[in-house]
Amino acid sequence: MKKALKKSTPLTARGNRDLQMTLEDQLNALVLFHLEEHASAQHLLQVLKEDDFARKHIAPLKGIEKSSFSEALNTRGLKQFVEVFEALVEEAHAVLPKEYKELGDLTLIDGSLIDATLSMYWADYRDGAKKAKAHLGFDLNHAIPRKIFLTEGKGDERPFVSQIILPGQTGVLDRYYQCHKNFDQWQREEKHFVCRIRSNTRKTLIKAYDVNPDSIVFYDAIALLGKPYETQTEEEVRVIGYEVDGVKYWVATDRYDLSAEQIAAIYKLRWNIETFFSWWKQHLRVYHLIARSKHGLMVQILGGLITYILLAIYCHDEFGEKVSIKRVRELRIKIINESREMDRSHKNRRNRRKKSRYRFSNSPYAIT
């Protein structure tokens, strides 16, 4: 993280007062929040104040008050957090192995709703309910988040696909993202896609391929999708149909370099992002809100993503594994043990100083 911090824009104070929290202080506090079981900002601040480990290694030198922490979280550091996140993504790409190299550069895309409070006026969803929505691009080959955007709960997910996928990459998408105009646009931008489509989508057949009767694939063809002169694609797409556990799936793609079975395998890998969202919410405590503004919530979410990437690098370097709750628990125990050891060392030093002062005060050479 320190290496990534060096690449970020310096964070300066507004006005004449010095910063109560440096950018590194703010990052450290949020990583600790996500690693440990903190249920609120107040709980986190209490730990930063009272826990020896957190006070020495995490908290600012002069401590941090609730008002200063809230101000830092909700008003500054967003640009720098994005820069640190992007630098760590690059670092992870260089360190972590590429798992599905033969399938190309795969980015799973999905949105996830975040429960908000009624005071979060910007998080529009429906009457009587406030929600925000995180739009995430997940690097499937390296198993890490790659891009993140935040909107109100009603925010449409489809426009973010072009911002998440780079030319040459393949977006892996659910049925919600089916849009024939977008299929045309992505092909013109040389951005690939593997997108599930509705089973009743009209297909104008151009060319059919033979399929293996022993395969899960029962359909492989080039077609135009949609109703002619109304919603039909201008560009041809490849349509794959396959069946798993009695459920039929239809997938549209512009990947002609892979077999139909490989295309089916790519879409099945989409469930990895659902696993990530579940793991992220449950074990990294990402959605225990400690910020109410859009700025602050984005900083909090980026703090969670940064923690996840640090864990991914750590688990690979130390154990040759992917991130797991087992390793997170080990880290939590290690932090607690180090905290206790520091506390014992601190008490022992204090006791030795007391004994030393007592011996000196009872010496015949002591000056009174």
Could you characterize the architecture of this molecule?
- By secondary structure, the protein is of the alpha+beta class.
- The chain has a domain at 193-265.
- The protein is built from twelve helices and ten strands.
- Strands 1, 2, 3, 4, 5, 6, 7, 8, 9 and 10 form a ten-stranded mixed beta sheet that branches.
- Helix 2 packs across helix 11 and helix 6 packs parallel to helix 11 (294-319).
- The protein is elongated and about 90 Å long.
- It starts with a helix and ends in a 7-residue tail after the last helix.
- The mean pLDDT is 89.
Defining key terms:
368 residues; elongated
Terminal Cα separation, in Å? 52 Å
**How many distinct beta strands?**
10
What percent of residues adopt helix (DSSP H or I)?
40-55%
Order of helices and strands: HHHHHHEEEEHEHEEEEEHHHH
Proportion of residues in β-strands: 15-25%
Number of helical elements:
12
Compute the average pLDDT: 89
Alpha-beta classification = alpha+beta
**What is the gyration radius calculated from CA atoms?**
26 Å
| Low-pLDDT windows of residues | none
Largest sheet: 10 strands, mixed
Form type: elongated
